[in-house]
Structure formats: structure tokens, C-alpha cells
Amino acid sequence: MNRSQGLDFYIPGAFLVVILCLRLPALWRDPRNELLRSVCAVLALAVCVDFATAMPSLVAINRFTGVPNAAAPLVYSFLTAFCGASIVLIIRWNSGPEKAAWSARWARRCYLVTGVVIAAINVLFVLGDAPVERLVDMDTYYANTPYIREMLLLYLLAHTANGIIVTCLCWVWARQVHGALRGGLILICIGHQFNLVYDGLKFVAIGSRWLGHDRDYLSAGLAPVVASMSVVLIGGGFVLPLVSQRFTNHLDLWRRLRRLRPLWRELSAATRHTRELAEGPRASIELRVTQLEADIHDGILTVSPYLDACVRQRALARARETVGCPEEAAAVADAAALAHAVVAWAWRVPLPDGADPLRQNHRSVLVSPDDPSGLVRMSRALSTDVVRSFREAAALRHTPDIPVPQRQPSPAGELPPRASVPLEQMDDRLRK
């Protein structure tokens, strides 16, 4: 029942349509990307092969053209084009920018050979005589018919050559890479092994007809099932590394967003509150991370006049006693200096004599914020004992119980001094 309804090909074809739809947005954003174009071309041709090979499609094509067996050269043309596109994709996939000219040259050769084979298939069909419609066993029924016989052998030879070439290229490449890319290449190799099994079944069935035997069940029964499985495996192999890379990138961004939250909360009072732009279910993870990092940098710039190099030096000396990695020790020292500056900024502590808030820059004290991974290390360091002790010391030093000299009147253009914050609110803020 599934064979007559075409479900054995329509279901894999629908699966490939879903995969193709996942890749089309990326191609729309970057239409000049040769690799994406090749991937989408392979997937589109695989969909054409599956949908054109289904039994209802064969009948519809023959009825539409009014030519018995007109679907055969069309299916063989799609299959040959799929083979050529697969080789081009492997060549471009395995070639970096330094091999762009080489890959383009070989891609043109593949296109030329594929075009010649497709043209020969259709010319041989026109020269031959296939008046009886055969939807299942055309390969064996016309195995001894002049020109039709050559057409069948030509497409099978081209399909076999493609399977051998792609398998060799993918196997050699798979031994040099790891992860999802290697998994995708192995899937492609397995899919083309199924293709070689498909070709072997066809050759045996046609050869048996030449010898006067009947092995049609190999061509009409087993071969289509093997072909359907091969198309799914090959299409999945091409898409797996790309989908895995996108998933990994999104996972890294979500992990980065989560790790930067403590640093953002530390500076939340000093930010300009631009984060609402990245809120809502429609906001992409890229926008959220960008907005969070912008808030963090904004907060660092706000409290930068209160950064103290001496505080950082003392924190660095203590961090080196407990942290072995120099980068982690520097992040702890930066986080301690920043936490101290946030408390001083919150209490509007008077700046040292001669300090110019407009000229103060965090780069003269901190080293981590300019490195994207440094922000993450600083955020993680905020929970260490060293940073906690420096934050608590700053809070005790600048409590309202200790007389704090009044600041000089603000010069023209400067914001008025911030109102005092009760100690209970400051302690709550520090605990958060």
C-alpha cells in the first residue's frame, strides 16, 4: 500500500524538505556563500529525486507529458545532478579560502561532466523506443532495447562512480576531523555505500535479463528501499555538522549570558538601563548577550573614577596565594577592585585630590574587561572569598557612621551628588 501511495519516498522527501527549510534562512542572509548554496542545492535535488521517484509522481509525469516512461529520464537526470552536486559540495566543504580557485576549477569540471551525462541520458531516451509504460521494472523490461539499454547503463555507471568518489573523499577527510563534522562525513559514507548496494542490485537484475534469467525482484523490490534510505543518510550527513554548529553557538551564547549575570547584577545600579531592548520572547540570544555586555561596559565606565590601583594590587597579591592560573588571579583582582569601586560610587565617596573623573579610564587599572572571556572570568570571580572580603571592607569603610567630608560643589554640566543610601539598603544590595 505504501509503495502504491508513494509513502516510501514521500516521507523521506518530507524529512529533507524540513532540513532544507532550516537552511534557507541562512542562504537568504548570505546568498553569496558558496558552501550554503551547495548544501541547499544538494538538499533540493535530493527532494526532487524522492518526490519524482514516488509511484504517483511517475504516473503524473507520464500523463502530463503524454509520453510513456517520460518520468524515467527525468528521474535519472535528477539523480545524476544530485551526484554531481554532492561531489561539488564535498570539494567546497573541504577547501578553505586558500583553495578557492582550485575548488572553483574542479566544481566547473563536475558541472560540465554532469551536464554531459544528463544530456546523453535524455538523447538516448529520445533515440530509443519504450512504448510500454513500466513504473516498477523499466530497468529490466528494457534491458535489451537499443539506446534504452545504454541509457540505463550510463546512469548506473555515473551513479556508481559518484558513490566511489564521494566515499573516498569523505573517508579520507573523516580521519582528519572530529566531532559533528566527522559524524556527518561518516553518515555520507554510509549513505553512498547504500547507493553502491543499489547499483549492484540494478546491475545484477539487468545482467540476469541479458543471460535469460529473471531477477526483477532485486531491481523492483529491494533497490528502491535501499535508495530511499541512502538519500536520507546523505542529506542528514550534509546537514548534521551545520545544524550542530548552530546549536553549539546558541548553547555557548546562553552559557555566556548565564555566566555574565553576576557581573551585570554587581553593576546594575550603575548601568544606563538599556537592557529592556533585549527583553521579550522575540529577542534573539545574540541581542541579549550584546545588550548585557553593553550594560556591563556602561557600568564599568560609570564607576571607573573610583577604581583604585592599590586595591587591585592588594587583591592580586592575595589571589596569587590561592589561585594558580595567572589569568584567574588577574580576574579576581579586577573583580575585587571593581566591587570596591561600586561601593565607593554608591556612597559617592570623594575622589582623591587631583583626580579628573572625565579622564579616568578603567584600562589604567583593570585588564580583564577588554577581553570577551575576561568578563566571564571577572563575573565568576565575584563569588570568591577575596572579592567578598574587599567588598565588605569597602562597605564598612564607607558606612554613614563614619564622617565623610562633603564634596565640593559640582562644576557646570556635572550631575548633582547622589542622595545617601541607608545602610540596610546597601547591605541588601551587596548581598544580592
Describe this structure in words.
- The protein is mostly helical.
- The protein folds into two domains: about 1-255, Rhopdopsin 7-helix transmembrane proteins (Up-down Bundle), CATH 1.20.1070; about 270-405 and about 420-430, no CATH class.
- It has 16 helices and no strands.
- It has helices at about 1-5, 5-30, 35-55, 55-65, 70-95, 100-125, 140, 150-175, 180-210, 215-265, 285-305, 310-320, 325-345, 370-380, 385-395, 425-430.
- Helix 3 packs antiparallel against helix 5 (about 70-95), helix 9 (about 180-210) packs antiparallel against helix 10 and helix 12 packs across helix 13.
- The longest helix is centred in the middle third of the chain and has 51 residues, at about 215-265.
- The radius of gyration is 34 Å and the shape is rod-shaped.
- The protein starts with a helix and ends with a helix.
- Residues about 400-430 have low confidence and may be disordered.
Question: Which features characterize this protein?
Answer:
16 helices, mainly alpha, rod-shaped, 0% strand, disordered C terminus, Rhopdopsin 7-helix transmembrane proteins, 432 residues, single chain
